[in-house]
Write a structure and sequence with these properties.
5-stranded mixed sheet, elongated, Arc Repressor Mutant, subunit A, 15 strands, 10 helices, 3 domains, D-Maltodextrin-Binding Protein, domain 2, alpha/beta
Amino acid sequence: MDKLSALSMFVATAEHGSFSRAAEQLGKTPSALTKAIGHLEVELGSKLFERSTRRLALTEAGSLYLETARQVLESLREASEEIGQLQQHLSGSLRLTAPLAFGPAFLNEVSAAFLAAHPQLKLHVSLSDSYVDMLEGGFDLALREGRGDLPGMIVRPLAANRSVLCASPAYLARCGTPETPAQLLEHQALLYQHAALDQRWRFSRAGEHFSLTPTGRLSSDNHDLLLAACLADQGVMDGPLWSVQPLLASGQLVQLLADYQLEPDAFGPQILALYPSHRRATRKVQVFIEFIAEFLQVRQLI
């Protein structure tokens, strides 16, 4: 029995929880999968599945073996792609996960440009503000806000995660322009809500530190909704520079209190590209990281 084929059958069976569904996906018969997994169990001297008429479940040994089997198959897939690409264009697929707000801010444009530059490569982008386990999700790369000291990860800082206060010219013409942090309490704040954040805005200037809790009529856990409200003249927003920089450059938004520094929040001071430390960066991952780093550098965010 081909060991790699047996590993593939075992992983597919574990993921589908059924011999018949896994066999259908692989184009094989259920008996072929049963036989292959039986060979693995004899070799290991341990059962990989608990079988009954109603369910198929991994044993403790099976759970341990599954993680290693996935890593082996993924490493071989990556090596095959790398060898095939030594003298060729990038090909295969690249799976990426990132926060929702990265899409309209820069990732939409980056993805389209990257595909145009590498026409033989497939790109799958999953945007979510929920924590995503890269291994369980089968992702090659993640973009996140945070700090570079993440255990178990290879991390490449891409850009500063700096925040600025901004509002539309029409809002400022109607409500006035705040000159000090304290004057922000007289304005409508557009409040971003997240479990990791409190509602305080913290500033520093020349060694002095300031903190206030803004108030406003609109709060949301969606950055783009708040940004749309800011553009619609509804208040003052604490926005990441990577999101609002083009709007500041075009004059659609105006930066406030530019001589004050907004202190980093719980999301951390950087935009990061990361992947698990036990997996080497394939050429497609390295090329994408360099591509997006150059894009953000042109945006003057690094």
